[in-house]
Every structure is written in structure tokens, then in C-alpha cells.
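Assemble and predict.
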Amino acid sequence: ASNGGLVRIGLKKRNFDQNNRVAAELESKEGGARRTSIRKYYLRG
Amino acid sequence: NSGDPEDIDIVSLKNYMDAQYFGEIGIGTPPQKFTVIFDTGSSNLWVPSSKCYFSVACYFHSKYKSTSSSTYKKNGKPADIHYGTGAISGHFSEDHVTVGDLVVENQEFIEATREPSITFLVAKFDGILGLGFQEISVGNAVPVWYNMVKQGLVKEPVFSFWFNRNADEEEGGEIVFGGVDPNHYKGKHTYVPVTQKGYWQFDMGDVLIDGQTTGFCASGCSAIADSGTSLLAGPTTIITEVNHAIGATGVVSQECKAVVAEYGETIIKMILEKDQPQKICSQIGLCTFDGTQGVSMDIKSVVDDNTRKASGGLHDAMCSTCEMTVVWMQNQLKQNQTQDRILTYVNELCDRLPSPMGESAVDCGSLSSMPNVSLTIGGKVFDLRPEQYVLKVGEGDAAQCISGFTALDVPPPRGPLWILGDVFMGRYHTVFDYGNQRVGFAEAA
């Protein structure tokens, strides 16, 4: 709500959960090639 | 997207998988509701489009339907964002965006028509609202925050974050546009100037473990305050020391052990003889010194002789390990440790190397014996206690604990770089002062 020129937005919170960790593992396999290219870029840079 | 590779590298490292805090906005007239991450580490607004048919993620989230909005304006310019985890593509549109009771008119945003990644399939949020600078905005789109200021919707060009780290309370936190909420911090903020516009980037000093220097950032590092990242990411050299101090799992590195066994004593001798520390690894033949940092022998061989091919990452790993070893040993010598003690300690560090951007488990029962880890910002020391930097996953007997620290190596001139995510912003109320181009931290309340 707006109050004295301030706009406050309440935030919701999610706890770390196992589903996300499993998904992160899958994602890291999918993203493996991309990360390698990032590392190469770093060395060039 | 801007064609500047400097922009691309760090955006690519973002990890929304672990993002924890999100709020609600509306798009269109009447407002269509979306849950978004308020992300200071990016600058675009995107939500799933009703025209997203071929990505499963779109079927699990709210979708924007332009035909249902009386204020929609067509744009159609294509858009494509790749993150470290996840990617989206679609097209730009314009509509009114409702944030709290403010209505930002004619806001450019991306209607995502493809969200192929698992990240967004399992995500609790629908989209992302970037609060970074326009310099890193894909398509050079004007960020929502810029329009809030331009349209005179906020009193001051400032926004601030408070994250509620109390796990027992339902209230997640609060973002305040136009100023700060004095109920959510104690004392005064310590402000530091933004050093590189794009991200909320600033200079950071030494990192301390139980009050002792870790050395690597003593002469300065950069840091980005990033509400869209959960953990605290920093250079491997320091994270390894943190892992050792808190008993976090690591990757055992044989290259590291080989460097310590073969060259450990020589490195100590060379440091004591006041050789230039940054040249030690080239002098013993593990790196080629290029004037600013070590370059692995592999790369040198390719540069010197195009007919030769790099034979793998072994020498590369030896070079970076050697450089880390020099920092660790220098630091131990400053603390007047004996040679035997230094070699043992560095050998132990070789068992604690973090996997890049990976998680490290810690013992939930050992929190009381873990040290404080502190970051120096604007000459002031900002402490993190174990219960603040260790995250609990699951409940009861099934609970697991993971370290809030993860490794991220960015070379100069942009690095060494720290990403201060929710783990840090939860402990310290953070002010993003757009008018004065500075970031402020005070103890959260």
C-alpha cells in the first residue's frame, strides 16, 4: 500500500526444497556445454 | 544481446533455481496478476504469454492475454534471454503495469512464448521483474523502475529490500519503492558508490573467517547486490578456505595435492625471499605470466605454436591451483605459521575445493562450532553467523544443511567478483539509491 510516498510490496518466501535441487541437478547436466563455453570466454577475456 | 560480451558473461551466471522471494504485480487493464521475482541482477520484465503453446512451463503458470487488456499496445520486437539456468524467448509488448497501488503506464515487457528450461517449469514464480540498470536490459527496454521515476510515481528515486529470514514467520519480506521502511533496519546504512552501471556493483574489501583475513580480497574485489540470487558466490580461493573452516564437503583435487607435494616448499621459500607473488607460478613453470595474471602453459603453447593443440585441462588446473596455493601460503605466513603447519593446512584445503556454482553440504549439528564469516564493505565489517549462512533443506530427521557459499570465478578486469544474494541481503537491509548511484547496507530488523 502507498503511505507517505512509499509503495510497499509484500514478498512471499519459498523454502529450499528437494524438488528444486533435483531440478537443479538436471539443469546443470543440460547446461554443461554452455558453462564450458563461458569458461572459455573467461580465459580469452 | 547488446553485442557486448562483457554483459553476456555475468547475466549467464544467474541462477533462478534457488530464488526464494517473490511478489505480485498486475499487467494490463484490468490487471492480470503475476508472481514475479524482484531481481536487482537483471533489468527486463517478462511473464509467460497466452501464445506460449509448446513449453510445458507455461501451462503451470499465469499467462498474459493481450486481447483481454484495453491498454495493450503491440510492439512485436523479438526477445531472447539466456540465464545460467534457464532461458526464455518471445516478443516485446507494451501495457500498464500495476505495482502495489501504482500504475506504470506504457511499460515495455517481454511476453515469453517459449520457456524450454526445467528452471521455469518447477519455479514458484511466473516471471521476473528486473531492477538493474538499462545498460544490461535486453533489447535496451526501459526498466519498470525507470518509468516509475520518470512518471513521478515515487517520492525519492530509491528502493529498498527487507527479507524476513525468520523461518517460523510467514511474512517473506518487503520491497519499498520510493524510500526505506525504518521498521526494518537498525542503526545507519553504510553506503558505497556504484562502480559499474548495469549491475548494482560496488567495491568490496577483505573477507574474514573468525576475524582472520583470507587475503584474496584484501587489495579489493567487486561485488553485486543481487536479490535474484539466493546464495553468496565468491572466488574459489576464499570459498575453499570457508569450506575448510565450516567442514563443508568439497571436491578432492589431485592436481592441488600434486602442486603442494611437489612445489609447496619451493613456493614458501619464494614468498619468504620476497619474490613477486604473482610471478611465482610462472617462475616454477606452472603458468606463463602475462603481466596481470597467470596464463596456463596450455594456452601459451597454442599461442606460441599454432600447430600444437592443447592437451587437456591438467596444466590449466595446475596453474590456477598454484595461484590459489600462493595466496593461501602468503596468508598463513602472515599469521606466523610454521612450514609444516602451512603444508598440512594447504593440503587439507585441497580436499575442500568447491565445484563451480555447486552446493556444499555441512553438518547441521555443528553450527555452534562454525566461525563467523565477515565481508568488508565501505570500510565496515559485515558479519554473518553460521545460522545466517547455512540453509536448511527439509525438516526433522530428513533435514540437510547446505552452505550459503558457492564458488564463482570471474577474472580481472570485471573480477574477482562476489554476488551478494539473499543470504547476505537477508541479514542486511539493502537500499538501492538510484538518485545518488549508491548501495547501502544496515542490520535488518
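The two ends of chain B are 39 Å apart (CA to CA).
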